[in-house]
Design goal:
The chain is an alpha/beta fold. About 30% of the residues lie in helices and about 20% in strands.
Length: about 725
């Protein structure tokens, strides 16, 4: 009968210090060795409970005569002998014993005990699932990464070695690396060698940083696009799975009675024999993840038999499986959809819970081990991940219809603790999370490419925060509004989640986050039809009336001008106005202030020149066409770089003029300024970006001040630049 390996003696753990989890293959003369360690014994109770398997087979070989006893335990840790034989003897060097799965029907493990006779022996053995024949190479491995080149290359080396040794050769058909870092992993030393070893099984996908949820989802989409792939192993870039355990998890997933997400246990990379948790479930009272009932955290299993603790015996199901190692079946995605765009934190929890409601089980298989950094010392509660921890936890609670009272009391208690400890950044992160949840589900997908930046920015802004009491009161107020709107928000998020987890929604996000094609300097500087020359950022905060009055009909179809409406109030009516006018619309989700909104708009700008305008130009009392800009109905003033040739100079006002001044002395805020033509090392006509928030200009200077510009807001008072590249004032210039 056909059989596939599902366990056995691990000779080379990927972390050498974990050798005590498997045991030594050497048996001294006259000694007796029980292979009952975590990575050597077979968790037969899991196979009995969750799979259709009926028989497992032990194949054991020895270099010298040995007596072999097959021992099984039950859920309580009581042991008994189920079979015996000998190996290494003349005419029968190998021992083959079939063990019925029913031997551990109520839980427990099975393992061989070896008694050497008159001489020392080296033994090896494996457990095989009889009658299970998974399709060859039907497992894909998906590894998202963000600037962890060494870790990714090490993981690829482990996979390549396992393919070459045959451990994973018939298992893994595709390895997808989702590269979201600032520097491509393909530029790292060692990538060519890893790529050569993996050959055509390796696929590298480059995209913007969409966090763990975007990276893992891209891995699922890319892998399942191949019809031969039936399961995808989601693995963190800094997690190192044992190849034999990965093969066992794949075989287990193929043999389960119903579609099942199969996970691996996490061991501490710094303490390789310490098991983080046996499994994780949702505490539905406090609405947080926690350990399986009756199981410990951070338990050292070095040289411990699998009967040492009672919690090791039962075969358990979990609510979800973290994505340090999770083998996801195609049926789970087909029935439940893709993960939600959470960026990170709670995406694996929500996906597992949603899959469970669709009939997909989650099981963490002993023996499928992965080594990963522990969570201690990462300050996730006080740095930018705290935003995602709270926001995504609340959204998951809303999706499940969880009552808010205890959850709200807890988040308020934690916020109060941050206020008392004078941790304004942590308090701001939590307040921003509450505000974004309250604003509704419009941020799903929309804010994913900028989510990390938004979270980091929320904490940085609070460096000049108000008094902690004021911040705490603000948190209390938004919490009250959130709890009051709980039912309405739950319905809104459940409706939005159905669309957000579709392939079409994710494909749009992937397209937006695709790495932009590079352009040479010559291509960048040369004018061509349809090129965006001017980007205008307008920040709105309940400003629909002014937008409709002053910002209609701005685009002339040439493509030279783009308008970016940044909405600090997240108003659907403003979005509808922007879409109707052909403008780019960006919602901030909440009021993050003028400077933050301007910066966000500047990030999206594509033009050679950047202007920042208020919804109502200061002093505007006449139609902008009468503001002295010739016969073109421009509603803004323009800045030009004097070093540019005339073809690069905006045609505004008298032909060849360098700038277009509003007729009113107060209409030109921000004050017009000009940039020097020294940004390029050799070509003074290189495009220069004026206005906005510059990035390390080489040298800037104020333009000639008109007669009215000598007041309190004089242009010359805003410049703080030098040849050293220090940051200019809020309206500077930027070398392109």
């Amino acid at each position: 009968m056909v059989s596939v390996r599902i366990g056995g003696l691990v000779r080379e753990p990927v972390v050498a210090q974990a050798r005590s989890l498997t045991g030594s293959p050497h048996v001294s003369a006259g000694a007796r060795v029980a292979f009952d360690r975590w990575l050597a014994a077979l968790p037969l109770g899991y196979w009995a409970r969750f799979t259709t398997l009926e028989t497992v087979r032990l194949q054991l070989s020895s270099t010298a005569p040995v007596d072999v006893t097959v021992v099984a335990s039950d859920a309580a840790g009581r042991v008994r002998t189920v079979a015996s034989g000998e190996a290494g003897v003349a005419g029968a060097p190998d021992l083959v014993i079939d063990v019925p799965v029913s031997a551990c029907a109520g839980g427990g493990w099975v393992w061989p005990e070896v008694q050497a006779r008159t001489e020392a022996a080296e033994v090896s053995f494996g457990w095989y699932a009889v009658g299970v024949a998974p399709p060859a190479r039907s497992l894909a491995v998906a590894v998202p990464t963000f600037d962890r080149h060494d870790a990714v290359l090490r993981q690829l080396d482990v996979l390549a070695a396992a393919l070459e040794d045959g451990v994973l050769d018939d298992v893994v058909g595709l390895v997808v690396v989702i590269d979201q870092g600032s520097v491509p992993v393909t530029d790292a030393p060692g990538w060519p060698q890893a790529a050569a070893r993996l050959g055509d099984r390796l696929r590298h996908v480059r995209q913007g940083n969409l966090g763990g949820s975007g990276g893992f989802t891209r891995g699922l989409v890319e892998a399942f696009a191949n019809p031969t792939i039936e399961h995808v192993a989601l693995i963190d870039d800094d997690a190192f799975p044992q190849p034999e355990g990965l093969a066992s998890a794949w075989a287990f997933a193929q043999a389960t009675a119903r579609p099942t997400i199969v996970g691996g246990h996490m061991f501490d990379a710094a303490r390789p024999t310490v098991l983080y948790r046996l499994g994780e479930v949702l505490d539905r009272r406090r609405f947080t993840w926690t350990s399986l009932s009756g199981t410990p955290r951070n338990c050292d299993l070095a040289d411990q038999p699998v009967t040492r603790h009672r919690w090791m015996g039962p075969a358990r199901e979990v609510d979800f499986q973290p994505w340090w190692l999770a083998v996801v079946p195609r049926e789970a995605v087909d029935s439940t959809g893709l993960p939600l765009p959470f960026f990170l934190k709670w995406d694996d929890v929500e996906f597992g819970l949603r899959a469970g409601r669709s009939g997909v089980a989650s099981v963490v298989l002993p023996g499928a081990a992965v080594w990963h950094d522990a969570w201690t010392g990462k300050a996730n509660e006080t740095t930018w991940p705290a935003y995602f921890l709270l926001r995504n936890r609340i959204v998951t609670a809303l999706l499940l219809g969880h009552r808010p009272w205890l959850l709200a009391a807890e988040w308020l208690a934690v916020s109060a603790r941050h206020a008392l400890r004078r941790e304004p950044g942590a308090l701001a992160l939590r307040r921003a999370a509450l505000q974004d949840v309250l604003a509704g589900p419009a941020w799903l997908h929309r804010d994913l490419p900028t989510a990390r930046h938004r979270a980091q920015e929320a904490a940085v802004r609070e460096a000049v925060a108000p008094h902690p009491l004021s911040s705490a009161l603000s948190t209390l107020a938004v919490s009250g509004r959130l709890v009051a709107a709980w039912s309405r928000l739950g319905a809104a998020y459940r409706s939005a989640a159905r669309e957000a987890t579709t392939l079409e929604a994710w494909q749009r996000t992937f397209a937006q986050a695709a790495e932009p094609a590079g352009a040479t300097d010559a291509e960048s500087a040369a004018p061509h039809p349809g090129r965006v020359r001017w980007s205008i950022v307008v920040v709105s905060y309940h400003s629909l009336a002014m937008l409709e009055k002053y910002w209609r009909g701005l685009l002339d179809g040439s493509g030279e001008v783009e308008v970016i409406i940044v909405d600090n109030a997240d108003q659907p009516s403003v979005e509808a106005f922007a879409r109707a006018e052909g403008y780019t619309y960006l919602s901030m989700g909440t009021n993050l202030g003028l400077s933050t909104a301007n910066n966000r708009g500047a990030d999206l700008a594509r033009g050679d020149y950047l202007l920042v305008r208020e919804p109502r130009p200061r002093g505007a009392r006449r139609r902008p066409a009468d503001a002295g800009c010739g016969d073109r109905p421009h509603r803004w003033h323009r800045h030009a770089a004097p070093g540019l040739p005339r073809r690069h100079t905006p045609e505004c006002g008298p032909r060849g003029s360098r700038s277009c001044w509003p007729s009113s002395p107060t209409a030109g805020w921000p004050r017009p300024a000009r940039c020097s033509a020294t940004c390029g090392p050799s070509d003074p006509t290189r495009a220069v970006r004026c206005g906005g928030w510059p990035a390390e200009p080489r040298r800037c200077q104020p333009g000639p001040s008109p007669s009215w510009a000598a007041g309190p807001r004089s242009t010359s008072s805003t410049w703080r630049t030098s040849s050293s590249g220090s940051a200019p004032g809020p309206w500077g210039c930027r070398c392109r």
